[in-house]
Design a protein that fits this description.
Largest sheet: 8 strands, parallel
Structural class: alpha+beta
Helix content: 10-25%
Number of helices: 12
Shape: globular
Radius of gyration: 28 Å
Strand content: 25-35%
Oligomer: single chain
Length: 682
Amino acid sequence: MRLPHTRTSRRRVVGVLTASLLALGTAVPSAAAARDQDRQQPERTATSALPGGLALTPPMGFNNWNSTHCGPEFDESMVKGIADLFVAKGLKAAGYQYVNLDDCWALPARDADDKLVPDPVRFPHGIGAVADYVHAKGLKLGLYTSAGTKTCSSTGFPGALGHEYSDARQFAEWGIDYLKYDNCNNQGVDARQRYTTMRDALREATAATERPIVYSICEWGDNKPWEWAAGLGQLWRTTHDIQDKWSSMLAILKQNLPLAPYAGPGHWNDPDMLEVGNGGMTDTEYRTHFSMWSVMAAPLLIGTDLRKASPATLGVLTNADVIAVDQDPLGKQGTVVSSADGRWVVAKQMKDGSRAVALFNETNTPQRIATTAHAVGLPDADGYTLRDLWQHRNYNTAGTVAATVPAHGTVLVRISADRRWSANPPAAELSADAPLAVAGRPAALTSTVTDLGRTAAQHLSVSLTGPEGWQVSARSATYVRTLRAGGAHHTRWTVTAPPGTPTGTYGLTLTASYRSATGVRASGTLTVPASVVVPPPSGTSSLGDLPWMSATNGYGPVERNTSNGESAAGDGRPLTIGGVVYAKGLGTHAPSEIAYYTGKACTKVTADVGVDDEKGAKGTVSFEIWADGTEAASTGVLTNAMPAQRVTADVTGAQVVRLVVTNGGDNTDSDHGDWADARLTC
């Protein structure tokens, strides 16, 4: 679960349990608690695992934390409503089973018998009654507690440390099917000891009640649980909490990808819950989130309030083709085939011999990403069947898997050495230049359709459309009777944005329609980003006053002439580096990228760069200036203890200049990078 209000609230109190409890003035444990402590024998080891057969595929379900935290809407009515929606919206049919309650379900104190007490306002009928309701729907109920004296919320509800056996028995008697066991207020007790004790408690409770409970170890990856937790629980967190933003999801994805050797049936790497539908990312980014969690064989725990979920959100969460990748019974986590320059290929071996292949674009611009059947582990074959798991269409390919993948997007396919490949139309790869257009002036682009199949594409027709009011004209052929296997067809176009069109990125739609040799119709589309730009002014200008083409930022928006405030636009403070205040510039939070159109008319970028002084900002940052695809200047790693560093870049002849800030490799949350007194000379 995520802690409210602060990013640094998971501080550990050092010391053994008994000494810590005495130092904190905690009451002497009750007889029940003492019995629990007596049962924590050191000779218990990871060899006595929980009953077999649990979580043979990654658990699928719901957890309320990402959408409600401890808010008043988290109550019995909500939980029952989620169970109802599982059935009504097809989520149960899609494979989702667990309706999980996170923190704040209990009262802040145990009762006279040292038992946990459900909050009577939130759960007036108790947890057992909620479990009965959920079970009656053919679903399962999950619960939360912490391997510490208190849970992770700011209120601090009772944790299970020292009460493992009585709490586990209570959970089983209530009918709990899933336990998320967090890591807060652990009093410095060894992680393996704490999580082993609860494993043994659940084992005993299961034996007594015949209630098997999936055990989710939420240890945040601090002690590398993937190396020791397979004998304890069915899944373990590999990272700290996810947040509903691209930078968080991306960082967690990168942390979890290398851990593929540790995952398998009944023991899964858990990169945290899904944020799909919570509003902090784009639809493209949410499809990437869902695709990559599935390729990584991650638990799929919905984190959005399903009572408010849009049809688009439900469409992502119930995509049967993608879920089948996650739930494949072979239980392999996908592995990285390549990752050059933010262009990722991740492949997952499937039980039927096929491979699920994710072409993932980490970058901020469309990228061509390609691989081959051989590279992802398939044998040589005359042809292959390729299924696009978001389009739900089958094609044939000679062995190449390739696509122009949108910024932050993922193309997810399943490829197999299928003897029936020829029954499918050939796969076609669409690509096009991304034009830079001054409003009212024609801009040129070239589109390409490439036949990747073993068979020809017949009667190929290509079209390009723009937003309302845009003029689009073809300057070469848009139709070809036969495009041979392996061949490419190019079409030249001009596009004109209406005069007065505001700067920004607009989508052009490229469509290719064709038939197979047997008459099967096929088509493909590609969104081509067209940037409306304004020529840079002559002379030297402050970049804080000029329009940019695009800007991405780690927290909140990039700020003009103030520091980054991490939230809404305009919440920054004066740009300050090393005690020096600057009136002009750009305030960012790593990772950040700002692109300016320079139209081959500019020669120089200068700035004073460094970590902003505000709020005692810490961490490390690196600054880079790119002229088109060439790095023109960089600073190396800077810290908040260093004064501003002057950076100058020669950008002569560049169409686009990009200002990039990275976090210097430490992944802290306070990487405020200022481009102070940033100037462009044209």
